[in-house]
Every structure is written in structure tokens, then in C-alpha cells.
Amino acid sequence: MGPLPAQRGSVNRPQLPLPAALSGEAARDSPARTGAPAGPHGALAACPTARTSLPGNPLAPGAARRFIRAALADWAGPGPLDAGQVGLFSHEFAYEAAVLVNELVTNAVVHAGTTVDVLCRLERGSTTQPTALVIEVSDHHPARTVRGAPRRTRDDLTEQECGRGLHVVAALAECWGITYRTGLKTVWARLCTDAGEPPERHGAARDERLQRGLRAAEFLAHAPQLAPRGPDRDWINRGALSFLAEASDLLAGQFDEDLIAALAGQLLVPRLADWCAIWLDEDAGGPLAAPRLARVWHAREAVIAPLRAAVEKEPPRLPAAARGGPVPMPWPRAAGLGAEGAALAYRLVAGGREVGALLLGRAGQTHIPDEITGLIEDFLRRVALAIGAARQYTRQATISRILQRGLLPSRVAEIPGVDSAFVYQPSNEALAGGDFYDVFPGAAGRWCFALGDVQGSGPEAAVITGLARPWLRLLAREGHPVHEVLDRLNQLLVDDATEAAEAAVHLATAEHPVEPTAPLDPADGGQARFLSLLYGELVPDADGGSVHCTLASAGHPLPLLLRPDGSVCPAAAPQILLGVVEGARYESESLRLTPGDTLLCVTDGVTERRSGPRMFDDADGLATVLAGCTGLSAAAVAGRIKQAVHDFADTPPADDLALLVLRVS
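RE: above sequence
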């Protein structure tokens, strides 16, 4: 399907009422804001494009979601985009695109029933417009109305809402519209990425994306109820799968259990219930820990406070046999809630462990249909899994932070006559980083510094860091010269790897011992003990002027020396990684640092920072940035290098980032 003619029968986006919670926000702009003809069809010519055709059946929305994710994954890698635009798409953006295409395709399937054509196109950004994803969904029955679009009755006095699909599209998209041509109707939407945003805007962009997700959830909840007050198998067949798919997309990737509870309440009310209350069991709180009332939600905001007062006194008590099924509960007594109705409680169970409970109700009924209770049960399984995943992530991140604090020095030594600064940023808060640094006093008036990078990350890397840093301090304080410290540390790592390999072989052959036919390879026992390390010693002159420096680089990015005249040169020669070759011998370099000299030491998270096929240190990029730091303090040099690394690409660094700056004052 090619681009459609602009303005031909196009329909501007309808003015949709915002929920009460969002009534203070400005409505999004219409398509005219883009500066192109109404709709995206006058956009840039040579844009990456993907298209597919889907049968008009209930499987089409799921196929469309997979199609859009595959297209984004393909465009995010090296390919048709400029190098500076690779890696544009966050997980949150991919979720939004999937929800948006799901709604558009569901509309086409439900209301047209014909083959559905899906086209997505990436419009490159400019100085005035951000990069945007345009999605077009076409069906071949243009006489059918569009789901969610207003339609006048014959007396032209009231509006009939056909659904809530395009309300979600309106909440997520910058603009959208409808274009008609003979035998074809196309609904298009434009979704902006955060490409090209300055680093200081990245946090705000994430907050804006979160607000769009919450806005979409509120539209899903505040739209006309899809769940009927009596059994309606046609609704279950048409709407339940779409509801569960949308819920999964909104809950996926959320690592805050309170936000998950808030989303769950907004999705349930008023679509499936008039009100709900969600309790969360305290994680690892012990058998006597009381559940915490995390969320109370009602279709009418004025009823939330009295409802909370009525239900917070005691969480629902559910029998062990209930598992995740519904349990009838007494109707709460609260102002505005109604005199009677049907109330049900559910356990929230993830991985066989209870993580919370939910209480919900529908006023004016004595029974909630089995079709609805079954759908709620399916939905709550997804909520419980999301809560369990969020708790697992939180536990892992907490352990990682504690472990990282133990692996890094609590304080670094101050070297007389030398100004020092550090930058350390792990790429993933949930995993202990593989980078480490240290500055400490050595033997006989020496001051030692080290910057290391362990292969990998997480617990395996933490084990090596936990071994290497104490060994390094011990060897340095025993008075061994720089090259000998590396010789001995290399042998310790090789021996430790060999012992690990022997232990692994022993465990594997414990039941059926066999004689080894070849020498053990230290790398065969699991995680290899590979370490890149820059290690050196500083000895200040007695007169307090220059500093004598001895250093060596073992498989590490070479340190750079900045002179006061702006010249930059490497300060060491490359040598093999530690822990690779048994009996390896290392050499050290010596130089004299005079006042104004700056020594920059970095890990490969700096030099190998990627923007498409390019790396930060290509064409001596790091040396070029350092040359512009003449006359700056150590802290200012560290800040400028860090900013340049972050500015090099639109996405956050994928590797741990560490750097050490030493400047003779």
C-alpha cells in the first residue's frame, strides 16, 4: 500500500473529553501542527518503511504487535538510519507502539472484517520536529464507521460511542486521522520518539512517556463499560483478548509495585467493576506482617475516601483453598457506595506465593457473571506476575547496591600535591558492575591507584572484583614494584580459575570418576577470571613540585597524559589481560608529572561507547575531548569527559562507565 493523498476526505481528530484527573492538561495538537498536509502522507521521502497484510480475524492484533516490534528492532540496529539515530527506541516506546497498532487493527477487524493492511514508517527528525513513527492501518470496507469515533443519530442530538479504541490512540499519539479513498479506509497515527532530546531532557521524556501510559490506562478505564451487566458471550469473544493484551502491554516492564496496583485499579474500574481495593503483602515481611492497602479506586472520585475508610480496617480473609479464584464477600458500608451489591475477593498469587489480595464490587447486583469473574481472574494473574517481577527486580537491585558498596572503596586517599576526581556509573542498577577503582597509600611513601574492568557483570564479576582489589592492596603494601604486582596478580587469577575448573570437573564426575586425558583449561570451569587493569604508583618529590609516576596497562585502555600546552599522548604501552596466560611477565613505564599535567584513566565503557557503527574513541575521539580540557581542575575534566560520553549517542550507555583523573596542582 503506497502513501495516500493528503487531505482527501481526511477527518481531523475528534475532541475527546479528558478524565477528571487530567482535566488540567492541554489537549494534544491536531495533525495541522506537523506543518505537513493533514496526516503523515506529506512526510520525508526516503524513510525506513515496513508493511504487511493480515487476515481480518481475531489473530490479527497479536500479529500486528509482533510485526511492529520486529520493525522497531530492525530499525534500531545498524541499517538504513544515520549512525547518530541508531538505538532510538526504548522499551516503553515499543510498548506504546504495540498498544497503538493493537487498537487500530482491532478496530479494523471488528468493524470492517476485511483484510487489514499495516504500514509503519519512521520519519526522520529535524531542527523543529522530533523523529516520529507513523502507523497506517487500512481496511477495505470504508462504509463502516470507525470504532471510537463519534456518530450522530438521526435526530442529530446525541452521540453514540462505538468503543474506546481511538480514545487510547488519541492518548498515546501526537496526532491521528482518517483518510478515505475508493474501496479503502486508512486510520493513521503519529507517535513521537525521544530521539534528539538533550541528555538533561531524558528524565523528563521518561516521565512524559509514563504519563502517556497512565493517560491511556485512564481512557481504557473511563470509556463506556465493555463488560455487560449480564452474560454477553459476544463481548467476551470480541473484547476479552484485546483487554488482556492491552493490560499485558501496560503492565510489562513496570518495576514499581505501587504503580502496578494503580494501573490495575484503573483498568478494572469502571470496565469490570464499580470499585476495587488492592492490598499488597510486605515482601519478606514475615508471617505476622499485615498487608498494606496500596490502592483504592472508584468510578466516582468523591467515593474513594469513604470507601478507603470502610475497607482499610481489615483486609479480606481468604481461605487457603481459594487459590486465585473469586470468594464472595460482604458489601462494605460507605457513603455513596450504594446499599447493596456483589463483592468478590481474589488472592494475587505469583510463583505459588501470595503477593496480595484484591476486593472489588458491582453495585445493584446480587451476582457477577462467571464470564466476568473468569476474565478478572485471568487479568489478576497478569497483575500478580507483574508484582512478583517488580519485587524480584527490587531485591536484585538492592543486593547489587549493597554488594557494589562493599566492592568499591568507602573513601579514597588524598595524594599530596595531586588533585583527583572519579566518575563511576554502572549500566544496570540491578547488577553489580564489573568496573572498579581505588586510590590508597602503598609502602615507603608511595601512593597507588588502580582502575579495573572485570569480564562480564553481576555476581561473577563481583567475585573477581572481591578477589582482585584486596590482593592488589596487599601486594602494593608489601612493597612490590608495579610490574611485579601485575605478575603476581595474574598468577593468583590463573590459579583461582584453575581451582574453579577442577572443582567443576570434580562435581560433574563425582558419580562416575574418569581420568582426564588432557590438561585442564582454566576457562573450562565456568566463568573465566579475566581482568583488565591499569595500575600505577605516584611518588611526590620532596620539594612538593613534580610527581614521579610508574604505571602499567594490562589489557586496559591506555591512560592519556594532557600537558599544559594542550598536547595529549598515551602514557603506557598495551599488554595482555590478567588471568589469561600463566607465567606472563609485565613491564612498567615511568614518567615525571609536572604542575598542570593531567593523567586520564578510563575503562572501555568510555572508549567503546557506541553510536551505531562508530565508537567514542574512533579517530582519537577521547584525546580530542581531553585536549580541550587544558587548565581545568580534575573534577571539571571528569565532568566534561562524562558529558561527552553521554552526548555521543541518544541512548544511555550500555556498559559500566568509570574514569579517574589525576592532576598535579
